[in-house]
Amino acid sequence: MAVLVAAVDCFSADITTLDGKTYKDARVTGIEADGVHISFREGVVKVPFDQLPQELQRQYGYDPANTTELHNGIAVKLAGTVKRVAGQMLANFPQSVAQNPMPIALLVGFVLVLTIAAGTWVKSRKREQRLASRRDEYRKSDDWQRKRALVLKRDKYHCVYCGARASRVHHKRYAPRNVGSEPIEWLVSVCERCHDKLNPDFG
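and the corresponding structure tokens:
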């Protein structure tokens, strides 16, 4: 479940993300747990924190090392809010309304929907964390080393972004479930500098 926070950035400037996209006269108009909303000349777009330049990541308090704590904290706050709102609604019901089964049923349904949504969001975050751990293990395998060598050879050991000497391989995207099943078309050769920009949490 996304929790949108009002933006505090009132100034416009060009913003270039780590994947090379530039948004002209852009400003941050909203902040969520996993990214920010950017308003620019052509509309509004949501950009994940890990694609923002490092100075913007720091400005909005994003720390890759603390994402687990951040998500768990949001889940706890959300659960507390659901309980508090439900309690206030019941406390404010007139006696005649509280005895009417229809408002009670609506309230129970409201709380149930929020609880299910919060639980689904937490499960999704835990699944992403498990996949990240499995990807780290996969990078130590012989299969990854073979695939890495093929990609570097295909790109002639040149970074696809800046043309410098490449020594690393970057995933443009990941397989949703089967770690290591990504085709080499999803992988590109990169230099150390571009790798650090694309993967700040590996830095």
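(Above: one complete record from the training split.) The beta strands are 5-6, 13-16, 22-32, 35-40, 43-48, 168-171, 187-190.
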